[in-house]
Specification:
The complex is a heterodimer of chains A (331) and B (524).
Chain A lengths: L3 H25 L4 H13 L2 E5 L6 H11 L4 E5 L6 H5 E7 L5 E7 L6 E5 L6 H13 L1 E4 L2 E4 L5 E6 L12 H6 E6 L5 H11 L14 H12 L5 H13 L9 H6 E3 L3 H17 L7 H12 L4 E2 L1 H6 L3 H13 L1
Helix pairs in contact in A: 1-2, 1-3, 2-11, 9-11, 9-12, 9-14, 11-12, 12-14
Chain B lengths: L4 H45 L7 H21 L4 H12 L4 H11 L4 H14 L15 H4 L1 H53 L2 H20 L3 H23 L7 H11 L6 H8 L3 H13 L2 H20 L5 H11 L4 H14 L1 H6 L10 H15 L66 H4 L32 H18 L4 H13 L4
Helix pairs in contact in B: 1-2, 1-3, 1-4, 1-7, 3-4, 4-5, 7-8, 7-9, 7-17, 8-9, 9-17, 10-11, 10-13, 11-12, 12-15, 13-14, 13-15, 14-15
Classes of the chains: A alpha/beta (331), B mainly alpha (524).
Chain lengths: 331, 524
């Protein structure tokens, strides 16, 4: 059992690692601090991230840079309508050994990496999308009746384009719920564009330092995060936020009652707490505060709330619902 | 040994005290505002509905104490736990829930290493910080609004004081207005009392008492100058009416009634002498005998009264009772004492003309019409403003000689040096004299005396036993439609009407009008 001193040093190490990683990612992705924070929070929480943004904002670069910085394996899957599940998880192929005997041998797909980029995930068919379900939740895949565990840590970063909706297959609710955070990658400001251009149109490429060197370090830091305590009232606050998104709940906000079909799942509350813990540590505290929960609310809940037809017709967004729930909880 | 949470709990308790203080200040301000509004309402009701001062110091003091007590109870009724205080301080102090977390982990115990770190971090955060600014005790906004009820109350009080002073002035004016009338009424009452004592006249005594009461009433009702005039007029009119009632001659008792009365009185031992005297026509002696019967022992007088009552009832059944006897009968029925009833009957007999002619005046019945007339004149002088100063006839009996004493001063025994009234029948200042205002009993001018135009007598009809015609009209017709058509009704009633017209002796000059009337009501 760690002593307070060693624990404190671990916490300090966590903070330092986080900030260094943030700095390394920032070298390649300019002006997206919130996205970087969100990706790192999800990374240290053991969750997956859905990045939503138009093409060309550096999403792929972000994931690649993260893999480089934490010294983990990386694979990229470009999702297309003709992509099959086997193309992702792998398949059994007939192979012939030196004695000429033929047998089925599992050929691992691109999902067998620490960090997987599922680019434009909404372009694949639901069948292919659902191939990620088992991997994301259980950290293993089953092919031909055989389970194949994935290497830990395992992180899926999926991207989707919010504009080109033609020929796309919106992610099913079950799969959306598997994502820890949904982060919106916004267009950078003019100042940030200057920096981006300076860095990408010259011969001087930013060099990415390796912050972590092996997966075990990631696991250790994740354990530190989970030790952060919180008071029951703070946990109640997280529950209130989740319940506030349910239209049938007594705590439901007026907007949720009007526009929401299904509220956030318990995984949403888990995401709130885990993210809150990381935010608390980053803030120099050892306990979670309501503000930490609130900070994580939008990213953790926005993809877990399903609007009804009226809400979509009125142009309401899940962010509006979450903002109202937060305002209601603060009263 | 103090734990790291001791300062936290101390801080939270201090914060709780501040919150209570702030609550108390807020609540006392609100209650004060409500209290002020209530005082204004009470003041308005007191001022304009009840006519009192809006508020007084004891009431204001007690209600203020009650308001403070309510504020104290209200404040301490809401007892905040330390956790609730911690949440509030965390929210307002920007402590990122450190108070709440530290308090929670202290209460839970079994601290893990991470919790120990939490407590240390919290203690380090709290050290040297002052969180009093998180719970300020500001001056409530309501305090400024207290000026409104305070100003309203002061204005009410000011207005009430002004009004009170004005009312006192009006009352003084009213009292000054009625003072002469009251003084004169009291003087009249004294003189009437003296006269009543001399003549042993109960009616006059009652009149004197009534005048005294009227004087007191007048003094009480004279709240303003206008009220004074009205009250004076009302009281004097009442007194005038009373005197006029006394002036009225007693109702005539017929000889038949006297005979019946004598017959009934003869049946009783105590009143047998009175019966004999009545039969002999000596009514004064009969009255004296009845007085003596009234002075007898209670059983005898009671028996006599019972017999008298039965006699009067029998007379009433025969519808042969005069007004005076009817009144006496009613009074006996309403529980009058036997002796008083006998005395009243005696008095009634004395007032009858036969008694006055045939006997010398009795000590108890020396109230002369002249004295009543003088009293009436004095009252009318007061009522119509006849204070003897040029209005009407002066009291010294010499018309047109300017100022003189009022006629009321003449209400005294002759020969005592008081001036006599000029004309008792038409007193000074009385309307209907020189300038008739239509308020006299005779609108055609001066009333003639009985001596000049003969004796006035009331002709009384006898209600006989024969047939009589009566028509019952229970009520005026309502707005409903007639159940019978007018033509049918006319046709049914026309023969009877024609026959009735034929049977009557109609003057020749009127026949044309009657015929035209019947033609006009004939249906088309």
């Amino acid at each position: 059992m760690p002593t307070p001193a060693s624990l404190e040093s671990q916490v300090e190490q966590f903070r330092a690692t986080f900030h260094r990683l943030h700095a390394e990612l920032g070298k390649m992705m300019v002006g997206q601090d919130d996205v970087l924070d969100g990706v790192l929070v999800a990374f240290f929480s053991g969750g997956h991230v859905l990045l939503e943004g138009v093409p060309g904002l550096g999403k792929t670069m972000l994931v690649r840079t993260l893999a480089d910085a934490v010294n983990l394996t990386f694979s990229r899957v470009q999702f297309t309508p003709d992509l099959m599940p086997a193309d992702i998880v792998g398949t059994n192929m007939i192979s012939e050994d030196e004695h000429g005997r033929k047998s089925f041998q599992f050929q691992r797909g691109p999902i067998f990496a620490h960090i997987v980029l599922a680019d434009e995930i909404n372009r694949a068919t639901p069948k292919t999308q659902s191939a990620l379900l088992e991997a994301m939740q259980e950290n293993h895949v089953t092919v031909g009746g055989t389970q194949h565990p994935l290497d830990a840590p395992f992180l899926v970063l999926a991207t989707q384009n919010p504009l080109e909706m033609e020929g796309t297959y919106p992610l099913p609710e079950a799969q959306l719920d598997r994502f820890f955070f949904k982060l919106k990658v916004r267009f950078p400001s003019a100042a940030d564009l200057h920096t981006i251009l300076d860095r990408t149109t010259t011969n001087e490429r930013p060099k990415i330092e390796k912050v972590l060197h092996n997966p075990a370090e990631v696991t250790t830091l994740r354990e530190v995060v989970r030790q952060v305590p919180l008071a029951p009232e703070i946990q109640s606050h997280a529950i209130d936020l989740v319940m506030g998104t349910h239209p049938d709940s007594p705590q439901a906000s007026p907007l949720a009652k009007k526009y929401v079909r299904y509220g956030a799942s318990p995984r949403g509350a888990q995401a709130l707490i885990l993210a809150g813990k990381i935010y608390a540590l980053l803030d120099g505290r050892f306990h979670v505060a309501e503000a930490d929960i609130d900070k994580a609310a939008a990213a953790a809940l926005r993809h877990r709330i399903i609007l009804n037809f009226e809400g979509e017709a009125e142009g309401a967004t899940t962010d509006d619902v979450i903002a109202e729930v937060l305002a209601q909880a603060r009263k | 040994m103090s734990s790291p949470t001791d300062p936290i709990q101390r801080t939270l308790r201090g914060m709780r005290q501040r919150m209570r203080a702030r609550d108390f200040v807020e609540k006392i301000a609100r209650i004060a505002l409500l209290w002020g509004a209530a005082l204004v309402l009470v003041g308005v009701v007191n001022r304009w509905e009840l006519g009192r001062m809006p508020w007084d110091a004891p009431f204001a003091l007690w209600s203020a104490l009650a308001a403070v007590a309510v504020a104290v109870i209200w404040t301490f009724a809401r007892r905040l736990s330390l956790r609730a205080v911690a949440r509030i301080v965390d929210t307002r102090g920007g402590t990122r829930d450190r108070f709440l977390t530290a308090l929670t982990f202290e209460e839970k115990g079994g601290a893990s290493e991470m919790r120990a770190l939490v407590m240390q971090e919290c203690a380090a955060f709290f050290a040297g910080r002052d969180f009093r600014s998180a719970i300020p005790v500001p001056m409530p906004r309501e305090v400024a609004w207290l000026l409104v009820p305070a100003t309203a109350l002061l204005m009410l009080q000011w207005n009430a004081r002004d009004e009170s002073a004005l009312r006192l002035a009006r009352e003084s004016a009213g009292q000054a207005e009625v003072a002469p009338t009251v003084a004169k009424l009291e003087q009249l009452a004294r003189e009437a009392e003296e006269r009543a004592a001399e003549t042993d006249d109960a009616e006059l005594r009652k009149l004197a008492e009534k005048m005294k009461r009227s004087a007191a009433q007048l003094r009480a009702e004279a709240t303003t100058k206008e009220n004074a005039a009205k009250a004076a007029l009302a009281e004097l009119s009442t007194l005038e009416q009373l005197v006029k009632e006394l002036q009225k001659p007693p109702s005539e008792v017929s000889s038949d009634e006297l005979k019946q009365l004598a017959k009934e009185l003869a049946k009783i031992d105590a009143t047998r002498d009175a019966a004999t005297a009545i039969e002999a026509g000596r009514l004064a002696d009969a009255a004296q005998a009845l007085d003596e019967a009234a002075k007898q022992e209670e059983p005898s007088a009671e028996n006599a009264a019972q017999s008298l009552k039965q006699a009067l009832e029998r007379l009433a059944q025969q519808r042969q009772l005069s007004e005076g006897l009817q009144k006496l009968s009613q009074e006996m029925g309403s529980g009058q004492r036997a002796s008083e009833a006998l005395q009243k009957l005696a008095q009634m007999l004395r007032q009858m003309p036969q008694a006055k002619q045939g006997s010398k005046p009795q000590p108890g019945n020396t109230r002369s019409p002249q004295s009543l007339l003088e009293l009436l004149a004095a009252l009318q002088n007061l009522k119509y403003g006849g204070d003897g100063e040029g209005k009407g006839q002066p009291s010294d009996g010499k018309p047109g000689e300017g100022k003189g004493k009022v006629a009321m001063l003449s209400f005294a025994k002759p020969g005592e040096g008081n001036p006599q009234s000029g004309d008792a029948q038409m007193p000074t200042g009385m309307p209907g004299g020189e300038h008739d205002t239509g308020t006299t009993e005779t609108p055609f001018g001066k009333q003639g005396s009985a001596d000049e135009k003969g004796t006035e007598a009331a002709l009384k009809g006898q209600l006989g036993e024969g047939e009589s015609l009566s028509m019952a009209m229970p009520a005026a017709p309502d707005g409903s439609k007639a159940s019978l058509r007018y033509k049918e009704l006319y046709d049914a009633m026309a023969p009877a009407a024609q026959e009735a017209v034929m049977q009557e002796e109609i003057p020749l000059g009127s026949r044309f009008f009657i015929k035209r009337y019947f033609e006009s009501i004939r249906p088309e």
